[in-house]
Amino acid sequence: MEQLSVLINGGGMVGAAAALAFAQKGAQVTLLEPKPPSVEENTDPEWDLRISSVNNSNWQWLLGLGIGEDVRHSRVFDYDRLTVTSISGTSLSFHADEAGLSKLGVMVENNALQQALWAQLRALKNVSLRTDDKLEGFDTLSRTAFLNKGEHLNYDLLLGCDGAHSKVAQAAGIDYRGWDYDQRCLLANVRVEKPIAAETWEVFRSQGPYALLPLTENQACLIDYSKRDDITALEKDKRALESHLKQTFAPHIGDFKLLKSASFALQRKHACHYVKDGSIVLLGDAAHSIHPMAGQGVNLGFADVRCLIETLEQYSQSTALVEYERTRRRENAKMMRMMDAIQFGWRDSNPIMQLATSVSLKVAGVPWVKRWLLQQAVGK
Q1: What is the CATH code of the structural domain delimited by 5-39+47-76+108-178+268-345?
Q2: Is the separation of the CB atoms in 31 and 129 below 8 Å?
């Protein structure tokens, strides 16, 4: 890859990880990101609301890129147990010990991970970090990108890592298929009175699931998926919001203090193509937006990067991109269908659906099935 020129639009977690992975393979990398992370360490004692659950396989890959030297360790928390409970009350738990691991993955603050990736990028001579330039368009025949100040950049690969409203996808004429879930995801960081376990869990109900992400022994991120209008109404009344959260979560974790909260709309989007004209490639949210209830979003993005690197090491560029699109579009579509099946099926109060869910969880508890599910959870 030493002769490869890679232009990346978007320097968030996936884009920065892609830039670092390609640069460490010897490629010449240019990264366009108008809002780079601060070089100063965040001194806020409380976690930010933007948090990701990174599975063990992807976390080990990130550590292999060198982020362990720079990531703020107080913004990383290992979890070793995952439990899901259906609307009928049937539960299934996975523990790291069952996979022979010390953890299933980590909770990490997005800003902290992005800062660590950028710290590594700043130290590399074959990386150009462009924070004052924006992509305006490109010509795929000459493989030339046009920037907002009139500059032209040549590339071999142009990676769109620029999120759900991707400029690269738009300019390439790539369409999406999907829908709006008519839900919002409410995030609330809290400080608990009683220590909590290193376990992430999710409980399903008719209006949508609610879940907990452990951040420390005494901090957690509470998540509530519900109808758009219901969440919007709660956010307009802090007392009603706190009362709702305590009614939902206090039976599980005891009393707590609300620190901060926010919400975002839920949509499903899948690009009709991940590759265009033999040089344009979409990765991460630019290629797929998935229901976040299982925390798979950023993990799918990292898997995109890893697959693209691996295929380019094995094949010519044209063949590699075909293989990347075939592999990742299939795997991402499979995960999206699985999330939708769980999202709609497990919260259905219809007795037949409840029976089907209970049966599916019992089947999932069968040792060999559970081992396979556990491998998916840790990213194997």
Answers
A1: 3.50.50.60
A2: yes
